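Feature request, filed as a ticket because there's no other form

It would be nice if the structure record came with a short human-readable summary line next to the tokens. Right now we just get the raw output. Example of a typical job, pasted below so the devs can see what we mean:
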Amino acid sequence: MKAQAASQQRAPAAVDFAALPRVRERTDVKLETLPVQAFLSGSEPVLLRGLVADWPEVSMTPAQLLASIGAEASEAPLPFYTAPADACGRVFYNESMNGFNFQRRSGRLRDCCEWLAANADREDAGMLYVGSTAVERWLPDFEAAHPLDLGREPSICSLWLGNRTRIAAHYDFPGNLACVLAGRRRFTLFPPECLMELHIGPLEHTPSGQPISLVDFHAVDEARFPRFAQALERAQVAELDAGDALFIPSMWWHHVEAFAAVNLLINYWWRDSALHLGSPQLALLHAALAIGQLDEKERGPWARMFEQLVFRRDEADWGHLERSDRGVLGEINEAQARQLRQHLAKQLQL
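Raw output as currently delivered:
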């Protein structure tokens, strides 16, 4: 009977990416003929095929690309990740979830390029991953040589360099334009409403700062993650070659795979709200601490208060107050935001 039950259990299977709907694609968008910003205010992802195909890196061989980056890079040390070959490029937790399956290291960008060049043909080389690295600091001449007017200021330009990697599904609060300059990448995207179907891990203990889906897209454990099938019903896939770009709206979850021995992605982040308003992620962590631990009877009134005071924000509710008297319930300027952060910092020093 045990053998029969075991035979009936389904072995973990990979997501059938080919069966998923494709992200909406445009092939007529060029930097010099149509403003990119026309596509950066929507609520759905868009694949902009060939958007940066004219950038010189796109036509370079991997060896030429790595040599070029290494020659232009600053000498400042930068953080990067390494993992053994048996991690299969997956950036994730360790088995006990008290740590991670990679090592955080520090070194020069030039050294990372040299390692990738020396190990490009080795299947057993393991993973090297340079992620979310400020282009302004480590490739200071790049942005001037690659003008891209997003119509949004300020924006942050970041570099992602490495060999074959698998990055778990996660979200970013800023809007994102991801441009592939070398290699090939596959993005599997989910709308924000798929939060609970993606079976996320801890909020505060994460590989790179954002909570991630615990589902291995290459070996889905359906018993442990039963709602993931519902997320796949709303998934979209985009496959990018060098020269292509992908617009990812704010808060969309995205699982990212890089397939070549050398992959380079440059992305631009921006937010439509003022920087001085701070990070919603930090507010979420504090709410989990201060409210999430209350019992259901106590949480209920706070849920209604948040709905009315934070999420609803209906002008009709506040006609009894002059705008100048509304405090944090009104518009918050930079000086007020600074004072409020100072107040919160003082109160949090328990």
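Something like this underneath would help us a lot:
The chain is about 25% helix and 25% strand.
The first helix runs from residue 2 to 8.
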